[in-house]
Amino acid sequence: MKVSSDWKIREIEPSDNSSLATVLRTVLLEMGVPKVGTAYADPELDSMYHAYDVARSAYFVVTYKNQVLGGAGIAPLADEDATVCELQKMYFLPKSRGLGLGKKMIQICLNYAKNNGFTQCYLETMPNMKQAQGLYQHMGFQYIETPMGDTGHFSCPVWMIKSLN
Known about the structure:
- By secondary structure, the protein is an alpha+beta fold.
- It has four helices and seven strands, in the order E-H-H-E-E-E-H-E-H-E-E.
- It has a seven-stranded mixed beta sheet with strand order 1-2-3-4-5-7-6, with helices on both faces.
- The longest helix is centred in the middle third of the chain and has 15 residues.
């Protein structure tokens, strides 16, 4: 499949909450992510619009013919310096993978971060998510040895960071 005008990346809307929660849980289960200590257990999964409707936070969804197929967010990293943000909940259903949408989504999130005064972007992922890690590295993220902030994702043992300067 090719990216056409039927594909859109836009900010989350309240009506996306239910379908986005289903997408995120579906991908997390597909990837074999533990249900505890990962995004799967995050209470905001059922109300993503409201979770990101706060200062210096944004969530973007990718749609095909108005159907939500994935998304990614950016928000301040909890219990960290105010200049550090986190790339959060970046997951896509198989239909939307391999089309360059992940790269576009990361760029949108990083542009948002820069425009909101962040100088570093942190992320956490799982060891088996090799394709995602390759994309993150391609986008300039580097591995770090220890976690940052307080994400509550104690089951995510891969940590990466990117300077936004």
